[in-house]
Design brief:
The complex is a heterodimer. Chain A contains three helices and seven strands, in the order ααβββαββββ. By secondary structure, chain A is of the alpha+beta class. By secondary structure, chain B is an alpha+beta fold. Chain B has two domains: 40-142, Rieske [2Fe-2S] iron-sulphur domain (Rieske Iron-sulfur Protein), CATH 2.102.10; 164-421, Naphthalene 1,2-dioxygenase Alpha Subunit, Chain A, domain 1, CATH 3.90.380.10. Chain B has helices at 24-35, 159-163, 166-174, 197-203, 210-213, 215-219, 259-276, 329-342, 354-362, 401-415, and strands spanning 9-10, 15-16, 40-44, 53-59, 62-68, 74-78, 93-95, 98-100, 107-109, 114-116, 140-144, 147-151, 181-183, 188-192, 235-240, 243-249, 283-290, 294-298, 302-309, 315-324, 374-375, 383-386, 391-394. In chain B, strands 13, 14, 15, 16, 17, 18, 19, 20, 22 and 23 form a ten-stranded antiparallel β-sheet that branches. In chain B, strand 1 (9-10) and strand 2 form a beta hairpin. Chain B is globular. The chains are: A alpha+beta, B alpha+beta. At the A-B interface, strand 2, strand 3 and helix 3 of A face strand 7, strand 8, strand 14, helix 6 and strand 20 of B.
């Protein structure tokens, strides 16, 4: 991975964060390919297979994976169209979870860029801390990791896949009305 | 009890005291008189289908472990070690023959029996009667159409009596087709800083808020446009015992605005009519609450959830989605994805409920605010017992009749010292 490419991806992700925090959502949407899959699974508490807290009765049924699967519930599982619908909803003057709007700050760190599986694709890892302050004194910290697939379309980097893994079991915020 | 419940709930006048949404003294009485007495929903059987499967949940603020034992029987226990009171199982779900406490290693079988105690011979001199120190079981456990309920009160009426006429209404969600429903994998769990009764009454029939609070989701395509919902009929329906149902008109299938789901509903219409009977030619139940705090809906999402109380001003929601077991895989997938986009903490509909419930709770901290009763007078005098529906039903779909019955039941339980007095 060239230094130049790494810098370009970093700047891309920082710019994305600034667009979100400045609530420039239509511009933010342009950073995603038309076939994007934007997925935020849930997490559960599960004992690992070697845990001595339980003795497993039926090992054939035991599920160790604690991140929800693709056929299970997720916090978000969006396409470009449903992301557009969510952004359009924010503009109705009646999206009460964001009216008055949240104050958000996306801190993006730990960026790693690798060659993707397909030619021209980049596999990008990053961590985020998203601070939300709302109303008079509501505070939420959404902390987690992202796995993105980026590709170049008409000279511009676009996100074609994003997996957002939040480091919480029970979501401690009352809702998720922002993007990651 | 020192509480003057009559001053808190005047269902006939449609006046409810704000104190019941904020005061800790009242909340502590609720834990005893509502949550330690009523039948409470635990899980759906499809979440623990095989021997050893377990799930952890809450009954009131009590941590509860629900287990299908090795022989296949479902039991529920306080998820608490008998020794020092440590929380026994810290996983959300799994499969186990035994559970071992992380503190000193006491080990319980999946029937709740205490199987092993470290140093039983040398430290307890083999003088500990293990049969007396098993997990504390619920007093009664029963299932209805796959829904597992339990109560801590051995004197509580049977689940059949507790549900009463509500049973048929539950069928309209959980037993529309042969095989009933199955739960989609995964769960939405989140914290809302609100009193538990606000979401319970909201799902119990607040049609009023839909067209305003959720209008943004309606107009941006997450659920059907309001115009499509103006079919005649429907109403707020109280089948008794505090249970609540909101129904839309018979011609309104109450399904998400997705072609494959609409077609599916069309295709099973005759079958569900045949299975559930002629009441379905009158109404389509689409959301409801089993008293006190298990709610469900069948609209843009098919979800059931429990509003677990965590103090007078906080709840933890545990919400699952369900699908008809007999539905084709592509319909199940469409329901899963449509449902999670509409309901859950990020749901385009549901995310807008939180601030309302939070602020409806928080404002009651004001001592002066708390002096003024809340208005539950919509449709007062405009509901009647409908023989065909086996329930009290409002004349119009927008009505406070359901919360009036809900809080009447709440008041009965809060005043009664025993089930006989309810």
């Amino acid at each position: 991975m060239t230094e130049e490419m790494l810098r370009e991806v970093e700047q891309f992700l920082y710019r994305e964060a600034r667009l979100l925090d400045n609530r420039r959502f239509p511009e933010w949407l342009e950073l995603f390919s038309d076939d994007v899959r934007y997925w935020m699974p849930t997490r559960s508490n599960r004992y690992p297979l070697n845990s001595k807290a339980i003795s497993i009765l039926d090992a054939s049924r035991y599920e160790e994976e604690e991140v929800s699967g693709e056929d299970e519930l997720a916090f978000m599982e969006e396409t470009k169209k449903t992301l557009e619908m969510r952004v359009a909803r924010l503009d109705t003057g009646m999206a009460w979870a964001e009216d008055p709007p949240s104050r958000t700050r996306h801190i993006i760190t730990n960026i790693e860029v690798e060659q993707g599986d397909s030619p021209g694709e980049l596999q990008v890892y990053s961590n985020f801390v998203m601070y939300r302050n709302r109303g008079e004194r509501d505070e939420d910290f959404y902390v987690g990791s992202r796995e993105d697939i980026l590709r170049r379309e008409a000279g511009q980097l676009r996100v074609s896949y994003r997996k957002i893994v939040l480091d919480q079991n029970v979501l401690l915020a009352k809702n998720i009305s922002n993007f990651f | 009890m020192v509480l003057d419940v009559k001053s808190l709930v005047d269902a006939e006048a449609g006046l409810i005291s704000r104190r019941i949404f904020i005061e800790d003294e009242i909340y502590q009485e609720e834990l005893e008189r509502i949550f330690a007495r009523c039948w409470l929903f635990l899980c759906h059987e499809s979440q623990i289908p095989k021997p050893g499967d377990f799930i952890t949940t809450y009954m009131g603020e009590d941590s509860v472990l629900v287990i299908r034992d090795t022989a296949g029987k479902v039991g529920a226990f306080l998820n608490v070690c008998a020794h020092r009171g440590n929380r026994l199982c810290r996983a959300d779900n799994g499969n186990a023959a035994t559970f071992t406490c992380a503190y000193h290693g006491w080990t319980y079988g999946n029937t709740g029996d205490l199987q092993a105690v470290p140093n039983l011979q040398d430290a307890y001199y083999d003088d500990l009667d293990r049969s007396k120190w098993g997990l504390i079981p619920v007093a009664q456990l029963d299932t209805y159409k796959g829904l597992v309920f339990a109560t801590f009160d051995k004197n509580a009426p049977s689940l059949t009596d507790y549900l009463g006429e509500m049973a048929w209404y539950l069928d309209c969600f959980f037993d529309r087709r042969e095989g009933g429903v199955e739960v989609v994998g995964g769960v939405h769990r989140w914290i809302i800083p609100c009193n538990w009764k606000l979401p319970a009454e909201n799902f119990g029939g607040d049609a009023y808020h839909v067209a305003w609070n959720h209008l943004s989701a309606l107009t941006s395509g997450f659920t059907r446009a309001p115009a499509a919902r103006q079919t005649p009929g429907g109403g707020t329906i109280s089948p008794g015992n505090g249970h609540c149902i909101l129904a839309v008109g018979a011609e309104d299938y109450s399904a998400a605005p997705v072609e494959i789901i609409q077609e599916y509903e069309e295709s099973i219409r005759a079958e569900t009519l045949d299975r559930l009977g002629p009441r379905l030619e009158k109404i389509t139940p689409n959301v409801g609450t089993v008293f006190p705090h298990m709610s469900f809906l069948r609209g843009s999402s098919r979800s059931f959830r429990v509003w677990h109380p965590k103090g007078p001003d906080k709840i933890e929601v545990i919400s699952c989605q369900f699908v008809d077991t007999a539905a084709p895989p592509e319909v199940k997938e469409a329901l899963r994805i449509t449902g999670l986009r509409a309901f859950g903490p990020s749901g385009a509909l549901e995310q807008d409920d939180m601030d309302n419930w939070e602020e409806c709770t928080r404002t009651n901290r004001g001592a002066v605010t708390r002096r003024y009763a809340l208005n539950y007078q919509m449709g007062l005098g405009h509901d009647r017992f409908d023989e065909e529906l086996g329930a009290w039903s409002s004349d119009f779909r927008l009505s406070d009749s359901n919360p009036r019955y809900f809080y009447q039941r709440w008041a009965q339980l809060m005043q009664a010292d025993t089930w006989d007095q309810v």
